[in-house]
Amino acid sequence: MLFEGFQLTVMTLISVVLLALAVFTFVDAALRREDAYRAADKQSKPFWLIILGLTALVNVLQIPFLLLQLIGLVATIVYIVDVRPALKQVMGASRGRRWGQRRGGSSSDGPYGPFNGR
Fold this sequence. Notes:
Number of strands: 2
Structural class: mainly alpha
Distance between the termini: 81 Å
Largest sheet: 2 strands, antiparallel
Helix content: over 70%
Oligomer: single chain
Radius of gyration: 21 Å
Strand order of the largest sheet: 1-2
Number of helices: 4
């Protein structure tokens, strides 16, 4: 009886984690620009939105067809490990520096170039 409760809790936890990953990747894919997918030489944005949206839907509805959940998990992992870093790299190159990041100049550099105190 205790084992059944533990198994149910573990399976529920795994389902919640899979759902959270699916929703995260879907939202992340939706927020990326369409041209970034082409520049990173990845599949198109609609392709990833359909695949990741179906994955999230399968996890929300908890369809008992395990093959769909496994395919969705693989797609989610591919997006997180391969597509997302490539998109971040492409978008980061065009976005410029973020606050607090240094250019590599000296500490006396001002916003318009070096400051020599003269």
